[in-house]
Structure formats: structure tokens, C-alpha cells
From TrEMBL:
<feature type="signal peptide">
    <location>
        <begin position="1"/>
        <end position="16"/>
    </location>
</feature>
<protein>
    <submittedName>
        <fullName>GPI anchored cell wall protein</fullName>
    </submittedName>
</protein>
<keyword id="KW-0732">Signal</keyword>
<dbReference type="InterPro" id="IPR018620">
    <property type="entry name" value="Ubiquitin3-bd_protein_But2_C"/>
</dbReference>
<dbReference type="Pfam" id="PF09792">
    <property type="entry name" value="But2"/>
</dbReference>
<feature type="domain" description="Ubiquitin 3 binding protein But2 C-terminal">
    <location>
        <begin position="48"/>
        <end position="193"/>
    </location>
</feature>
Length: 206
């Protein structure tokens, strides 16, 4: 096998692995919705807003943060858990986990603070095992069947596809994941009133 062919084969296999970062979509003009002027796009009726957001802290492992509206991250300490309810009726769709990160100037009611190198880590919990008011670092949802997703470098002005997979995995229940960082302070208000910011699950049908 020629080196180029072998490389293509390896890359092909790697890009099909569960949890692989599928694409980093820079916010090019094609991504600007002509009606809203927003980067990235959530088709109305075809996405889920996180049903529950909470934090956990490694340095305060028994602290329960309860329901939160913000995603909050500090290096190697505070991480955020985002949980989605996937209706049983979506079993036939593909689910895309996306992170929308507009620039501050594209936001009117939401805002964020961000400093650091922007390395983020995403890990999925077991479908059906989701956070609640008792969730702490020491009392997290059950680990999922998949290895951690590769680290993602996230910075303002981009939208990121974290993963694409069949929705049946979580249809009829909840699916939650942990997002953490080793080098960044980041706090944002999860919102889509203007330009979407934060993490969403989108549905697609070929
Ligand atoms: C994160 O915030 C803490 C506390 O304010 C600060 O000490 C640290 O330098 C910050 N780190 C980065 C990468 O911004
Ligand atoms: C954070 O994690 C990334 C990816 O594993 C690594 O390359 C980087 O050196 C880490 N940064 C720090 C400050 O530990
Ligand atoms: C989901 O994605 C896979 C891989 O791209 C594709 O083969 C399949 O047709 C998609 N299913 C739907 C419902 O779009």
C-alpha cells in the first residue's frame, strides 16, 4: 500500500471513530444566517437546548451547584455538565453536538468572560444517567461507554462540531456530558435569543 493511501486509510478510520472531532467550522459568511446575521445556525424545531446545566468542582468535591444558567470553567477545577432530553421520536435522526462561540460584538443580551489558551475536553456520561440537584464532583452521572473526545481548542468567533452520532443512543431519555478545561477561565450565559452561544444538540435527517 502506498504511503498516501495508507495515510488516507488511517485518517478515514480515525474520522469515523466515535467521539472524533468531525469539523471545526470557522464562522465563514456561509455560516451567517441572512435573516438573523448570526454565525452558526440552529434550525427552528430541530435542536435541543440543554435541559439541565450544572457545575462540579474538583477542589470542592462535595459541593452541589444545583441548576445553573451559565457554563463555568476554571483550569483543572470547575467544569460544567450539560444534559439534553432526547425525545423517543428522534430515534431515527442523527444528533450533532455543537458548540457555538460567537464574538462578544455579536451578542446583545448574553455575554461571556474568557481568558486562557482555550483547551477543552468533552466526555459523555452513560445515556440515561444525568445530573440533578445532588450532583457533585464525587457524585457524577455514570461514565459513558465511549472514550473521552479528543481535546478541542475553542476560541471566540467559531462554531465547533463536537460529535455526530445516531440519536437512538439516547432517544427517550437524557444524555449528558462533562466539559472541562486545563488552561482557561470561561463563563458564559447559555442563550439563543440573539446569536446562539453554548452547547446544543441538533437533529438531522439525510
Ligand atoms: C484564571 O483565574 C484565576 C483567578 O482569577 C487566575 O489566578 C488565573 O491566572 C486565571 N487563569 C487564566 C488562564 O486566565
Ligand atoms: C492542556 O491539555 C492540552 C491537551 O492535552 C495540552 O496540550 C496542554 O499542554 C495542557 N495545558 C496545560 C496548561 O496543562
Ligand atoms: C446519519 O449519518 C450517517 C453517516 O453519515 C448516514 O449514513 C445516515 O444516513 C444518517 N442518518 C440520517 C437519518 O440522516
Amino acid at each position: 500500500m502506498k504511503v498516501a493511501t495508507l495515510l488516507a486509510a488511517i485518517v478515514g478510520v480515525a474520522s469515523a471513530a466515535p467521539g472524533q472531532l468531525v469539523s471545526k467550522r470557522a464562522l465563514t459568511p456561509q455560516d451567517i444566517n441572512p435573516r438573523t446575521g448570526c454565525p452558526g445556525y440552529l434550525t427552528p424545531g430541530e435542536f435541543e437546548f440543554p435541559h439541565y446545566i450544572t457545575q462540579i468542582s474538583k477542589s470542592q468535591p462535595d459541593k452541589a451547584f444545583g441548576p445553573q444558567y451559565f457554563g463555568v470553567f476554571t483550569p483543572n477545577d470547575v467544569s460544567s455538565i450539560f444534559s439534553f432530553d432526547i425525545p423517543a421520536s428522534r430515534a431515527g435522526a442523527n444528533c450533532t453536538l455543537e458548540f457555538f462561540f460567537p464574538t462578544q460584538s455579536q451578542l446583545k443580551t448574553s455575554s461571556y468572560t474568557y481568558s486562557g489558551a482555550g483547551s477543552f475536553f468533552f466526555t459523555g456520561y452513560n445515556p440515561g444517567s444525568c445530573p440533578n440537584a445532588e450532583t457533585t464532583y464525587n457524585n457524577q452521572p455514570k461514565p459513558g461507554p465511549f472514550p473521552p473526545f479528543p481535546p478541542v481548542h475553542m476560541e471566540p468567533g467559531n462554531a465547533y462540531t463536537i460529535d455526530i452520532g445516531p440519536c437512538w443512543v439516547g432517544a427517550g431519555t437524557c444524555v449528558a456530558g462533562l466539559t472541562s478545561t486545563n488552561d482557561t477561565n470561561f463563563s458564559f450565559f447559555q442563550d439563543y435569543d440573539e446569536c446562539p452561544i453554548g452547547i446544543y444538540t441538533g437533529y438531522s435527517y439525510l
